Amino acid sequence: MSNLTRGERLQIMLTPEELKAVDLWRFERHMPSRAAAVRELLKRGLDAEGFQTAGDGSKSSDFGVVKRTSATGTD
Description:
Blueprint: H1 16-28, H2 34-47
């Protein structure tokens, strides 16, 4: 076992749909905790090719876990 310590806490707010998506992903992969699942998702996202950095004027609401659709079912 490693001597890894995590001294920083990251708090995020998720919609019920976003939390459901994270939990489904977690359970399908038998991840031991939500925190482990989120760390793995962050690692995969950072490792992905062609990820976009936030542009000037970006808001937190511009970045969600699941894609939002309008009431008509289109963006």
